[in-house]
Design goal:
By secondary structure, this protein is mostly helical. The protein has helices at 18-35, 42-49, 53-56, 74-77, 85-106, 108-129, 141-154, 174-191, 199-216, and strands at 2-6, 159-164, 168-173. The protein contains nine helices and three strands. A three-stranded antiparallel β-sheet has the order 1-2-3. Strand 2 and strand 3 form a beta hairpin.
Length: 229
């Protein structure tokens, strides 16, 4: 596992990544509010706002009192719910390191559409992979997977400082560390092991990100930039 810490890539087209910072703020605010009990019982909220494959596919239905929103909306709401401190810190660290430069390369409006599209694609693939599952998908991992792939396609030679196995400091080009990360997500999804991690959502985000990045990036921010930092 590779945990990114810093990339050092400057913004070229904007002074501040407003959308990326807003997404981080919303995720953190929702997490803190849920854990403080402000929004109600955490397990109930996970079921009400997480994307449940069996419910999405019409094979099951939520218990009375849990269907607070139309089920298709959970493809979006589930992106802003996290299971614990490790979950939220890991996801927001990835988003902080990579999201600002992807927003810079796409523009704020397109970046927001890109982020949400990757998250929805991830949730849909998670549901199609196991349509009978009643485990709610929560977390921004699908959307962030798309952001990671976009960064890799846009800035493959930027050297990323991170922790290998969450322990060993390492600095290496994005194409290697993020490519290996994406490959691991695909292998983990195909292994069908019960890990409690929605790897198929990661894969959905990766595929969506790879498809949309060539369409969404600015002409002035070409793919496969040769810049190194």
């Amino acid at each position: 596992m590779f945990m990114p810490l810093y990339d050092g890539a400057p913004l070229r087209f904007m002074r501040w990544p407003l959308v990326n910072c807003t997404l981080i703020a919303i995720n953190v605010a929702v997490f803190l509010a849920m854990n403080a009990g402000i929004l109600g019982d955490v397990e109930r909220l996970d079921l009400a706002f997480g994307a449940i494959p069996a419910v999405l596919m019409g094979q099951s239905s939520l218990a009375k009192g849990l269907a607070l929103i139309p089920e298709p909306f959970t493809l979006l709401t589930g992106l802003f719910i996290h299971a614990g401190y490790g979950h939220i810190i890991g996801n927001m660290l990835f988003l902080w390191v990579f999201g600002d430069n992807v927003e810079d390369a796409m523009g704020s409006a397109r970046y927001l559409v890109f982020y949400l599209a990757c998250g929805i694609a991830g949730a849909l693939l998670y549901a199609f992979a196991d349509p009978a599952s009643e485990a709610p998908l929560i977390g921004a991992s699908g959307a962030i997977s798309g952001v990671v792939v976009a960064y890799m396609l846009l800035y493959p030679h930027i050297r990323i400082l991170g922790l290998l196995l969450n322990l060993i400091p390492l600095r290496m080009p994005a194409v290697w560390c993020l490519g290996a990360w994406a490959f691991l997500q695909i292998v983990s999804a195909l292994s069908n092991e019960e890990t409690g991690v929605g790897f198929w959502a990661h894969v959905g985000g990766i595929v969506c990100g790879a498809i949309l990045t060539p369409v969404f990036h600015r002409v002035e921010a070409p793919l496969f930039s040769s810049r190194e930092i």
